[in-house]
Design a protein that fits this description.
Length: 180
């Protein structure tokens, strides 16, 4: 799960709900709270009906808060029933009302790659950015060499730039910070 707190003491939680045995049905939900997380509203599905997520298994989710009630969620999705190499798709969705409604999830990184750890940020200029690991080899076992890549959206997450190499050395678990 991942949580953000807004300046007005509202809170947002996103987490997976398992609806079937492991690897056969998971949905990513968001819950909103108006009282510092004491009580929570009804869940809102982030990945329901999406063409870019398959709902079988998920890497993440991660949340980042922007200005004026905006928030971005990113997660990796893969189908363990079909793909035993754990090739994932990194996606993101944006909300402008503290997580009550969300944009349709869109592809952030390359599809069907060894993509993981997609840390999002919303910048004060309205841009969204997701940093993620893209592994040079999708063949297990370890060790895998991972480089940090980024994608940027300037249109509210409807489209993303081609991923760009941000780090040419081996790295894991990229993190972003924004001073909104």
């Amino acid at each position: 799960p991942s949580v953000v707190i807004f300046p007005n003491h509202h809170a947002l939680l996103i987490a997976l709900e398992v609806t079937a045995p492991f690897g056969q049905g998971r949905t990513l939900y968001a819950w909103h709270s108006d009282d510092d997380g004491v009580t929570w509203g009804a869940p809102v599905a982030l990945d329901q009906g999406s063409q870019v997520t398959n709902g079988h298994d998920t890497d993440g989710p991660w949340l980042a808060r922007g200005a004026n009630g905006s928030v971005i969620a990113s997660w990796g999705s893969y189908d363990t029933q079909v793909d035993t190499t754990l090739l994932k798709t990194m996606v993101a969705s944006i909300s402008h009302d503290e997580g009550k409604t969300w944009t349709h999830p869109t592809l952030v990184g390359p599809s069907n790659s060894q993509v993981n750890d997609g840390q999002p940020a919303l910048l004060s200029n309205g841009r969204a950015i997701v940093a993620f690991n893209l592994e040079e080899s999708s063949i297990l076992p370890q060790p895998l060499v991972a480089d940090v890549w980024t994608s940027v959206s300037i249109d509210d997450g409807r489209s993303w730039t081609a991923h760009a190499l941000a780090n040419v050395t081996s790295s894991k678990w990229p993190r972003l910070a924004s001073t909104n």
